[in-house]
Specification:
CATH topology of the largest domain: Tachylectin-2, Chain A
CATH class of the largest domain: Mainly Beta
Largest sheet: 6 strands, antiparallel
Strand content: 35-45%
Distance between the termini: 21 Å
Structural class: mainly beta
CATH architecture of the largest domain: 5 Propeller
Radius of gyration: 25 Å
Shape: elongated
CATH superfamily of the largest domain: Glycosyl hydrolase domain, family 43
Helix content: under 10%
Length: 584
Amino acid sequence: MLHLSRRWRVPAVLAGLAMLAAAGLAIAPAQADVTDQYYHQTQNAADPHVFRCAQPGDSSQLAWCMVTSQDLNQAPIDPSGPGSNYYPMDKTLGQYSPDGVWWYNKTTALNESQIGRSGFKHQWAPAATWLRKSSSVNEYYMYSPNLTNKNNRLSQRLFVTYSGHPTADYAKNNIPGTSSKWREIIPGTGDPRYSNSNAVGWYMSDPDVLIDSTTPGSATANRYLIWANGDYATCGGYSIRKMTNAYTLQNMTSESQGFITINGMMNGNAIDGGNYNNEFDQGLGTCTESNGTFHQNPYIEGASIYRKDTLPSYVQSLPGKYILMFGAKPSVTPGVCRAPGQPNTANSVLAYATSNSVTGPYDYQGIIMCGSSTEWTNQGTLITAKGSGGRERLGLIYHDGKAAPGQTPRNRQLHSECLYVHKGRFLLTARSNDGMSDLGDWGWCLRTDEFVVALKSVSTGKYVTSKSGKPLEATSPRVGLWEQFGIGITGSWDYLHARNPGQYVQVNRNATGKPVIARGAAKGDWEQLKLETGTTSDGSAVRIKDNQGYYWRVGSDGKITAATKNPSSSDKSYWFYTETIWMS
């Protein structure tokens, strides 16, 4: 009998495990990069943004909608000059999904010519939001970055358009209450553009809109616009401002009035003191502007902001009320990104910070996804979908590219992974070959995530780790990529499947001491186990026995072997706590 958590009744867990076994699914291993797993087919899509919407054709039903930019498969424009555009784009794509898995009605939502930017090819990283005016009237607003001066990359601003449809027909009709089809957002009366025609201040790009409510599309809730206020040459940064309507903000007389502070990014918020050789290090380092100004934080861009209570219930253990997810360019490859199965590059990571206030300050919490080995940037968005048992699961949609850094043309695509929570933190995710869903079909995390666990030795107090090619050891102080195991049953046997390296755990009977190792490609005799529930003096735990009747034992050095058929029930070295991961 298996006991995963004191909060779960054993029969319910076993019923779920039986369903898992019937599905015949296994957890996918991590990969350095993904070139064959797509969230869904959207040609050269980048900078995804997901938002809640009314389902087209049936506005009484909620749906998910998504807008993305689209690489043009062209070489950079004026890469060393004032225009400096490495990512030529001229349109925004849109589509919707009733469940977050199957996507429909891919359209061109907006062309840059519709906002007076014809030929600029700078329509990057869009965002959109929904305003439900009544049961039958829905308004959607698109926020599109582009230039006011084609030859000056620092003239990036935000342009607003309207549609009655969430993923199409933007700028077809006038913005309600105005006589124009698009409006430029003016941050405040102190904007230097209107006193000096050569000024390049108040850069605005990579927007997101937060509806500060648990009611999707709320017409009465406060709304906040967040944007990137600088590019790589200025080390980036974020601003946030309350919106007074769909296209205006509360007035600012100084750009600094909107700045967001994120504490602790350089050294990973004291997670490890910035020791980049530590496998748990999540420090992001520093950045120096093109003018020589030094910052004790990395270059940051492309933020998304969320109310924690609008996400699945297991996310509520994270600190704060608001979650800020963002792209960051580390100055040194973080330790967690040097581990086997990770790309081992200093390209842009996806990280997150939390706060009790929507305007901050925010506290850095760690890295969600390491940088790619083929694409300099990363930008992500969150979505929930229902997995087995109707439980909501949190997924990350992001972009990646096949071309090596510096190569052209750009051909980024959308991918997905699941986000796990353990003890109040997002666990670092890794690129896998199936992700959240594979070409619209159900992916592994939507079925098996209820039964992903970490094993903690009762005797050592350390977590069991499964590094590629090495016997299992209970030596890890924290749960990371190598400490996650899927539990399944087939017939009368239990099986443990290590997320990394994506193989079944077995006992190597041909080796002295019978070490336990994750290297089984399939479920065979050597992978057959029994997980027996019991109680130690410290609480509920399990003992693990193979099909020859030998029980696992953790030695004083942390190494795990199949040791004896008759261990004493009071011997703590044979007991493991099972801590469920990402389960409400």
